[in-house]
Design goal:
Cytochrome-c3 Hydrogenase, chain B; 15 helices; 5-stranded mixed beta sheet; 2 domains; 14 strands; Beta Polymerase, domain 2; alpha+beta; 503 residues; 4-stranded antiparallel beta sheet
Length: 503
C-alpha cells in the first residue's frame, strides 16, 4: 500500500497522474484500506468524460493527514454495472446510490439502490419522488406514520416514515431530495468567480463560512494562490464564531423541546450577541461575504479584536452560569439521558463524521487530522464523548463552545491585526487538467469540495459533500426501539441539513 496516490488537504494533482486500477484491484484496495479505523471514506463519485466514466474515491488517513486517491474507469461499451462495495463497506451505500441515480450504473449486490436526491438531470426521469420505495414490514399489528415533507414549523422539506408497534418505533426512513437546487450544476454554468462564491455561501445557510471556505481553498490551490498566515487565522476565527453561534442556538432549541423556557430564551439571546458581532465584522450575521478567494474585503482589525474580546467575556460569563444550572437539572437530564443512543460500532459502519462521530467515541475532526487555515499554527483538540445519546450531543455542544472560546483567546494573546490582510481576487486563472480537494470542519462536521479542470483550465466538474450526507443515517438508527414522541429531541440533537444534502 506504500505506492498509493496521496495528497494533503487543500492540494491539487494532475488528473492524468492519478493511477487507474482495474475494478477488481480498486475493490480490493478500498476494502483493505477501510479495514483500518484510522481511515474513513470522504467521497466517492463518477466523472463523465466523453465515452468513459472516471470514478474517484477519496479515503482520509487520519493518522498521518493523507488523502488517498483511488480511481477506476468504466468504458461506455462496457456493461453499466459493477460489483457493489456496500456489502463490505456500509459507509459507501449512499455514494453508490448517488452514482446509480445520476448515471444509471448498477451496483450488483447493493442491498437497495434507492434514489438519493431526485435531481432534475437524473438518469431515470420516469422515477418520480412520490414513487420512492420505502422499506415495509407486512403485519396487521404494525402501522406507518408519515411526517412531512411539509412541516408545521418553518423548516426545509423532508419526509420521515416511521414503522411503529403502538408507540414504539421499529424503523425510521428519511426521504430527502425535494428541492432540486442543482448547486453542482450551477457551479459549472456560472463562470464568474463572485457568482460561484455566492453559490458556495448558500449551500447550507447555517454553514456559510464552512462551505465558502472549502470553495475558496479549492480555487486557491487550482490557481496557485498562497494566502497570508494572517488571513488563514482570520478564516479560522470566522469558522469558530460560526460554530459557537450555531451550537448555542441548538442548545436553546433543545431546551425548548423539553419545555425549559429559561434556557430556551437566554441561550437564544446569547446566540444573538455572537452573530451580531459577525455582522459588525462582515455585514452579515451568518458570515456571508466573509470568505473570498485570495483575500478579504473586510479584514479583522485590532478594534474588532477588542470588541470581540468584550463580546466573548459577556457571553462566556452568562453562558457558563446558565449551562452549569441547565445541565444539572433532573428534568433535562432525565429527558436526554439514554435516549437516542447510537453505538461506536454503528457510527463507524455508517462512516459518520463531525459531531455525530465525536459524541460516540470516534475522534474524527478535520481541524486536527487534516489541518487547514489557522489550525496549523494554532491546533485544536477535538472534544470526544463516549455515550452516543441525546445528552452526549447536548453536552458536546457546550464543551465545543468552551473549546472554541479557548482557541480564540489563545490566538489573540499571540496575534495582532495592525496590518490589514490582502484584498480578494476578482478573477483567477486555473491550472488545466487538475483535480483539487478541500476539507474543512464545519460545525456539523467534515465538508468536502472537489473540482476538476479541463485542458483550457475551465472547471468541468464540481463535487460538494456536506456532513449530513453521512449523518442522516445516524438519526434513523437512533430512533429504533424508542417511542415516536422521542423523535423531535433526537432530530434536534443532530440538527442535520436538508439543503446541504439536497444539492
Amino acid at each position: 500500500m506504500n505506492n498509493l496516490c496521496k495528497i494533503k488537504n487543500n492540494n491539487s494533482i494532475s488528473l492524468n497522474s492519478i493511477p487507474v486500477y482495474k475494478y477488481s484491484d480498486f475493490f480490493s484496495k478500498v476494502v483493505d484500506l477501510m479495514g483500518d479505523d484510522n481511515k474513513h471514506i470522504v467521497n466517492y463519485f463518477a466523472i463523465p468524460d466523453k465515452n468513459i466514466f472516471r470514478f474517484i474515491a477519496l479515503i482520509a488517513d487520519d493518522s498521518n493527514s493523507d488523502i488517498i486517491i483511488l480511481s477506476h474507469i468504466l468504458e461506455e461499451n462496457d456493461k453499466k454495472e459493477l460489483a457493489a462495495l456496500t456489502p463490505k463497506i456500509n459507509a459507501l451505500h449512499i455514494f453508490e446510490r448517488e452514482i446509480f441515480e445520476n448515471y444509471g450504473i448498477n451496483f450488483i449486490g447493493h442491498p437497495w439502490l434507492k434514489p438519493v436526491r431526485f435531481p432534475k438531470n437524473r438518469y431515470n426521469k420516469e422515477l418520480q419522488i412520490n414513487d420512492y420505495p420505502f422499506y415495509k414490514i407486512n403485519s396487521s399489528e404494525l402501522h406507518e406514520v408519515g411526517v412531512g415533507p411539509i412541516h408545521a414549523g418553518i423548516i426545509e422539506p423532508g419526509h420521515f416514515r416511521f414503522i411503529c408497534n403502538g408507540e414504539d418505533v421499529l424503523h425510521l426512513e428519511i426521504q430527502l431530495g425535494w428541492q432540486h437546487r442543482g448547486i453542482e450544476k450551477l457551479m459549472l454554468e456560472k463562470k464568474q468567480l463572485l457568482q460561484r462564491t455566492i453559490l458556495s455561501e448558500s449551500i447550507a445557510g447555517d454553514t456559510s463560512v464552512g462551505h465558502s471556505l472549502a470553495f475558496a481553498q479549492v480555487m486557491e490551490t487550482l490557481a496557485q494562490i498562497e494566502v497570508s498566515e494572517q488571513l488563514k487565522i482570520e478564516r479560522s476565527l470566522a469558522l469558530e464564531l460560526e460554530r459557537i453561534a450555531i451550537h448555542v442556538g441548538d442548545i436553546s432549541a433543545l431546551c425548548t423541546d423539553v419545555a425549559y423556557n429559561l434556557g430556551a430564551n437566554i441561550f437564544g439571546i446569547l446566540r444573538t450577541g455572537i452573530i451580531n458581532f459577525t455582522q459588525s465584522w462582515c455585514g452579515n450575521r451568518l458570515g456571508k461575504s466573509m470568505i473570498r478567494v485570495g483575500g478579504i474585503n473586510l479584514p479583522f482589525t485590532e478594534k474588532l479584536k477588542i470588541s470581540l474580546l468584550d463580546t466573548i467575556a459577556k457571553f462566556e460569563f452568562q453562558f457558563l452560569e446558565l449551562a452549569h444550572h441547565t445541565y444539572r437539572l433532573p428534568s433535562v437530564e432525565n429527558r436526554f439521558d439514554n435516549i437516542g443512543t447510537v453505538s461506536e460500532n454503528q457510527i463507524r459502519k455508517i462512516g459518520a463524521v463531525g459531531m455525530a462521530a465525536r459524541m460516540a467515541n470516534v475522534k474524527r475532526d478535520i481541524r486536527q487530522s487534516h489541518p487547514f487555515a489557522g489550525f496549523f499554527k494554532y491546533p485544536i483538540e477535538p472534544v470526544v464523548l463516549p455515550k452516543g445519546d441525546v445528552f452526549s450531543r447536548f453536552l458536546l455542544r457546550r464543551k465545543e463552545i468552551k473549546s472554541s472560546i479557548a482557541w480564540i483567546k489563545n490566538m489573540f494573546e499571540k496575534e495582532n491585526f495592525d496590518t490589514p490582510s490582502e484584498k480578494p481576487k476578482t478573477s483567477i486563472s486555473l491550472m488545466p487538467q487538475m483535480f483539487a480537494v478541500s476539507l474543512t470542519e464545519g460545525w456539523r462536521g467534515e465538508i468536502c469540495h472537489c473540482a476538476v479542470t479541463d485542458q483550457n483550465g475551465e472547471i468541468c466538474f464540481y463535487k460538494i459533500k456536506d456532513p449530513s450526507m453521512h449523518n442522516w443515517k445516524a438519526l434513523e438508527l437512533s430512533l429504533r426501539n424508542l417511542e415516536i414522541s422521542d423523535f423531535p429531541i433526537n432530530n434536534k440533537s443532530y440538527n442535520l441539513s436538508y439543503c446541504g444534502f439536497d444539492l
